[in-house]
Amino acid sequence: MTALKNLEQSDLKIQMTLGDALQDVSPRATIALEITGPDHPGIVHDISHFLAERDINISEMVSHCEEGAMSGGYVFHSNISASIPKLHNISDVEDALDGLAHSLNVDITLDDLKGKRTRI
Fold first, then answer.
1. Does any domain span residue 8?
2. How many of the other CB atoms lie within 10 Å of CB of 47?
3. How many Cβ atoms are within 10 Å of 57's Cβ, its own excluded?
4. How far apart are CA 6 and CA 3, in angstroms?
5. For residue 46, is it within any domain?
6. Residues 15, 101: Cα–Cα separation, whole Å
7. I need a surface site. Which of 8, 22, 57, 96 has the fewest CB within 10 A?
């Protein structure tokens, strides 16, 4: 905060508004994703970018890599808790995740937390 006040003394004005950012304009539904596949550089970036483009908010993401028993390479594992606008059609999200799974060469399981688990 002191650094911001120092900038203000140099005739630079800074204004922050949080009111609109804190309001969620649409109701959201929670989903869970499990992702497993060969590790490669940028996989977390690709997944998070994909979700952000679709207004899917990651609330928690746990990931790790382990040595693959058969492949000799590393296997990426991630569990993601996320929220999507309720106005999203879950079938459209599944279709989009199918494209992501194919492009990243991973398996994705989508759990809508209401009893439906879809392996993509």
1. no
2. 22
3. 15
4. 5
5. yes
6. 41
7. 22
Overall number of domains in the chain? 1
pLDDT grade for 114, boundaries at 50, 70 and 90: confident
Distance CA 33, CA 50 (A): 13
Pull the structure tokens for residue 68.
């693959």
Domain carrying residue 78: 25-119
3-state secondary structure of 88: coil
Give a yes or no: residue 1 inside a domain.
no
How do residues 20-69 score in pLDDT, each as one tens digit?
Answer: 555 555 688 899 999 999 999 999 999 999 999 999 999 999 999 998 77
Query: Tens of pLDDT along 81-105?
Result: 999 988 888 888 889 999 999 999 9
Measured distance CA(113)–CA(80) in Å, rounded: 12
Give the whole-angstrom CA distance, residue 23 versus residue 35: 30
Instruction: Determine the 3-state secondary structure of 51 from DSSP.
Output: helix
Q: What is the rounded distance in angstroms from the CA atom of residue 114 to the CA atom of residue 120?
A: 17
In a domain, 50, yes or no: yes
